[in-house]
Design brief:
By secondary structure, the chain is α/β, with parallel strands linked by helices. The protein folds into 2 domains: 255 residues, Alpha/Beta hydrolase fold, catalytic domain (Rossmann fold), CATH 3.40.50; 125 residues, Tetratricopeptide repeat domain (Serine Threonine Protein Phosphatase 5, Tetratricopeptide repeat, Alpha Horseshoe), CATH 1.25.40. It has 15 helices and 10 strands. The strands form 2 sheets. Strands 1-2-4-3-7-8-9-10 form an 8-stranded mixed β-sheet, with helices on both faces. Helix 5 links the parallel strand 7 and strand 8. It is elongated, with a radius of gyration of 25 Å.
């Protein structure tokens, strides 16, 4: 397929997936700006059906042209459960030069100035509180922008407590001193932050050189609390690199959310000598604490860890697996089944039978059902009589 056709196909694919979300528009009356500002709102497909669920929020500067590609990538990734569903807010900025007015900076100080200062306050003091009051949001906020708006998004990092948890900066046209200030901030930061930086191989020199300096300075800062990734896309221009960057950024930020894959299994779990159940527990605790995403432990992840425990004969860890099962699925037979399995593997069929009996009175889950529990009970009773 010719390169141009691939790009058109990818764009069409991304936009078509955006139809999974509910897309609406709103006008916000801003006292800071002294005017109304239009935004696009993308709600997840599950938003109305799941009344208790809270969602991370992705704020898009340059929302006029970034909304659809981001929405498509989010819809595609969440369809495969690789990234969570999220609320997407696109800020319109292409009317009568708004984009340039909104990002006005003092060239000497390298900080928002005049209309730029007002727009900075509009986002932080008006837009974010408005969205969080109106919609069911989790505490995890992401901001993204392209060239001058990507640079502007970085100003929220300058605050003592950064407003956003993750920053997606696509070919930023960095403000003066920014390549130094961001790295200095990262060296001192005390809470986890995600930072994605990208450029196209064909980016113009005046944009690319400061980006390279910023990349080097962030590496020198070397703070483990900063989850950082830098991409330079071969053959991409200042504009085409955006479609390459979006999925890369989202998958970087939500890497911990993804179901256990072969890389995570081989590199992080199978290398452990013990503590397999604790790894599973921590994976979902971090997902909640760092990403603000609260979901029950996936049964696929549970089975992966359970199988490794059985393979390594680490049967005592099945007790911890039972605790995890009871926390995430209190009405299901999972917890009692794990205890039954632990006693069975430890050679205590009498106690195993009791646990399988308890499990048979609870709700089925995954491949666990009442018939299976009854078979286990008969098997354990037979073993107990032989003993």
């Amino acid at each position: 397929m010719p390169q141009i056709m691939k790009k058109v196909y990818l764009l069409t694919l991304l936009i078509s997936f955006s139809s999974f979300a509910q897309k609406t528009f709103d006008n916000i009356k801003s006292e800071k700006l002294g005017e109304e500002r239009r935004i696009t709102i993308g709600l997840p497909a599950s938003y109305e059906a799941n009344k208790d669920k809270k969602y991370p929020v992705l704020y898009l500067l340059d929302g006029d042209y970034l909304f659809d590609p981001f929405s498509g990538a989010v819809s595609y990734g969440s369809y495969w459960d690789d990234i969570p569903e999220m609320i997407i807010i696109g800020i319109h900025q292409n009317k009568d030069g708004e984009r340039f007015d909104d990002t006005t900076i003092d060239q000497n100080e390298g900080l928002p100035f005049e209309k730029g200062s007002k727009f900075f306050e509009f986002v932080g003091a008006e837009l974010v509180p408005y969205i969080e009051k109106k919609y069911r949001t989790s505490p995890f906020r992401i901001i993204a922008g392209h060239d001058i708006t990507a640079s502007f998004a970085n100003f929220y990092l300058y605050k003592e407590i950064p407003l956003f948890n993750a920053y997606i900066c696509l070919s930023p046209e960095l403000a003066p001193k920014m390549e130094v200030r961001i790295a200095e901030k990262f060296a001192k930061i005390k809470k986890p932050v995600f930072y994605y930086l990208s450029a196209g191989e064909g980016d113009i020199k005046k944009i690319k050189e400061p980006i390279e300096k910023l990349n080097n300075n962030i590496k020198i800062a070397n703070n483990p609390l900063v989850n950082y990734k830098y991409d330079v896309f071969k053959g991409a221009t200042h504009y085409t690199e955006v479609l390459h960057s979006i999925p890369s950024a989202l998958y970087q930020i939500f890497e911990a959310y993804r179901p256990i894959n072969s890389a995570e299994y081989n590199d992080k779990i199978a290398v452990l000598q013990e503590g397999y159940a604790e790894y599973l527990e921590k994976k979902y605790a971090d997902m909640s604490e760092v990403l603000g995403v609260q979901i029950p432990v996936r049964m696929s992840d549970f089975k992966v860890v359970e199988n490794l425990i059985l393979k390594r004969n680490a049967y005592s860890e099945l007790g911890k697996m039972a605790e995890i099962g009871n926390v995430h699925y209190p009405k299901a037979m999972l917890g009692e089944y794990e205890l039954g399995l632990m006693y069975e593997k430890q050679g205590d069929p009498k106690h195993a039978s009791k646990k399988y009996q308890n499990a048979s009175q609870m709700e089925p889950i995954g491949d666990l059902n009442k018939d299976m529990m009854y078979e286990k009970i008969d098997e354990m009773n037979t073993l107990a009589k032989k003993k």
